[in-house]
Amino acid sequence: MLQELKGYLLILIVVMSSGCSTKYTKEPTIEKSYDMTTTSDHFIFIDNEGIMRDVNNKKIFKHEQSIKDIFKKFDSLKKIDNDLSIVIYIHGGLNKFDDTINRVENTYKRILANKQYPIFISWESGPLTNYSDHLFAIRNGERDLLKAIPSSPFILIEDALRSIARIPASSWNIIGGQTNVSISILTDEEKNAYKSEYRIDNNTSMHVHSDSQSTGHDFFDFATIINPTKFVTAPFIDGLGKGAWRSMLRRSDLILHSQEAYEGKGENGGKTAAYDFLDRLNKEYHDTNKTLIGHSMGTIVANNILIRFPDLNFNTVVYMAAACKIKDLEQSVVPWLKKDDNRTFYNLTLNPYRDINENSFYDFFPRGSLLVWIDDFLEDVNSFEDRTAGYWFNIVRSAEVVFPKDIRNQVHLTKFGIKDCSPQNHGEFDDFTFWKQNFWLNNESEIKSIIQNKQYCQTY
Question: Do residues 18 and 370 touch, judged by C-beta distance below 8 A?
Fold first, then answer.
């Protein structure tokens, strides 16, 4: 994905969010009775106006029939196998429309083969459109071209001045923050995280699935760290990226209710196709096992779902590299867990040193995954709980505060290792069997099976 960004300043601005790359190489064996759906039966795409689009990227202004068709196909398969469950997946930012379609096409049969009916709730988060919305379309959280277009030169100047003002801070982040992992002495952050992990694993009922603490670093991890180009690119990303980030946050809020809800049409007038799907799921499918999976910014959407639909009885919620704030888990996931002690929450993270060291183009950009960038400069972090929940050093230090004692046995914290066949970068989680419990548990047998079959993983 990052190769597509090279040389484009506007895309460089929004490179902070997760991408999509599909590495599946082989069709699964699927029972003939299950082979009766197409991509459109698993795909709900919401554009930046809250309107559903079909697999050909055409707008569907009246989405009711499309939602009925999805449930009709699920009901048909449910009659064949009453144990058929539903798994809902929500992707993160920096996904173009073609990316979202490819993900569905490359995975829905594999998920069906596992006797799960997948629904991909997708949204418009392509790299070029986020900053352009910030510059030319959005003012005070609303799409208002009459205000936005005349003021766009001033917004651009403001962003440019911010970039200049952020030169000292971004430079210090490169010197003091980007290089500290090359020093063998542990930082306070690392020490505190290791203490917390040991205490949680040995003295609480929370489940910790953690590989070794090794940084996995070698010469090539640091050979380009002194690249001086990042001193130029860092202020631009720092200063201009905030607007693009805010634009994506706004879009994540529009997945359930479009702007029309706030333009006099009220709640019913602004309900999107995703909302109507979830509403029917909530009212009619109480006995169906349901799993909610969010990746990166998709966890922000998942939080909104848990809050808007408090009675939707998901059995399992899985967050992968969560870009949501730690405090948001307290407001959404914790109440959901408290309602039923049979519910389970999985929080999956990269090895923290992969988050810290994620880089591209031989260190032309500042190091760090989206989560590191959010904590460092994209978001206003006023307290520890404003940090991202998908970064291991954050969640492991805050887990005892976030999750009360009575629900800790329902919580799983998984940290992947540094190895050839587990997620190594922020955007790689959906290159794996993200719908399987063995993956959520970082099960070694699952990893070995993946390597042997060469279906879900290639060497990165």
Answer: yes
Q: Name residue, tokens 């629900």.
A: 407
| This model's pTM is above 0.85 | yes
Question: For residues 65 and 281, what is the distance between their CA atoms, to the nearest angstrom?
Answer: 15
CB–CB of 316/343 below 8 Å?
yes
Dihedral over alpha carbons 381, 382, 384, 385 (to 10 degrees): -80
Burial 352-387 (b: 16+ CB within 10 A, else e): bbbbbbbbeeebbbbbbbbbbbbbbbbbeeeeebbb
Cβ pair 206, 411 in contact under 8 A: yes
Residue in 193, 251, 314, 188 with CA at minimum distance from that of residue 47: 251
Assess contact for 440 and 414: CB atoms under 8 A: yes
Q: CA–CA separation, 32 vs 3, rounded Å?
A: 39
Q: Strands, E, within 316-403: which ranges?
A: 316-320, 344-349
**41/78 Cα distance (integer angstroms):** 14
Q: Where are the domains of the chain?
A: 2-453
CB 375 within 8 A of CB 381: yes
Backbone Cα Rg of the chain: 22
Closest Cα partner for 34 from 8, 73, 89, 61?
73
AA letter at 455: Q
Please give the average pLDDT of every successive group of 10 residues along the chain, which has 460 residues.
Answer: 36 35 52 84 96 97 97 96 97 93 94 96 88 92 93 93 85 64 70 94 95 62 70 81 91 94 88 98 97 98 98 98 98 98 97 87 81 92 97 98 98 88 90 94 63 40
